[in-house]
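Exercise 7.
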Amino acid sequence: MHSNRMGNTGLQVSDLSLGTFEWGRRVDVATARELLDAYASAGGTALELPAFDAPAVGLVTDMRIPSRVQLLARVGVRATEAGGTPQLRTGRSDLLTDVRSLLGALDRDHLDVLVLDAFDDRIPVEESASILRTLVDTGDVGYVLLSHHSAWQLSLRAADSGLPFAGAIAEYSLLRRDAETSLRPALDYLGLGLIAGAGLGRGVLSGQYLRGLPAGSRGAGDLGGYVGELLDDDTTGVVQGVVKAATALGVDPIDIALAWNRRSLCASTIVSPRTREQLDQLLASDLELANEISEVLDQISDPCG
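Solution. The predicted structure, written as tokens, is:
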């Protein structure tokens, strides 16, 4: 697995990051351990925790995390029941409480990468920045990434030269290319990198939803609304193009999706396999797209088209 720098910063990430959203839900502790071991053995270096109070935290607590695997831990939002409005927690007291709680739960003395998962315009930027500086100065946090931030919000935070910002996590795939126009200019100007969240289009780019909702899929379960946002005529055309390219090359649609991400603007793509078989397929995917195929995919998924 290749390692890439986040922009001009010193943070290095493998080109696949292991997401843990389903850990403690549809992924049990034995499977989670197997996934982590296989990922680390393949050279993976980034383990994403979806929230400071997510079920995954309890599973990770009982695991031995290889030293080369960095935790990318999200704070700033309290999880709610499906369909509920997330509770923002970006004030000084909340951030301090939640980071200390996370460190205690993980039995760690620091977080490799803290991901600030929200921008709350009711909280002065300086207030949240002050606690981030405190956490960095005391060695509790190495780098900071931003998620669910617009370009101007990211730029406002990154203007604080006392904080080790390394970039952003944003949804990015052939089905969601908004980051190219909304975030990329700011990231390039600031010398920061991008990690693609939902890089497989929430699973839609696999082609499995072209004929309905397969039993056992995310779209057929409690994530139906989340997946359903990407099931429309426009995205169906893109997925059909991906499937057509995969058929012509004798590969899987997932190979096309990952190959396109690798040659685009992201340093890493977050994947969230639920089984060892799924992970092995992702780890084995090393397709390099020919220019003409990449250009066609760019055209059919053009965010400005």
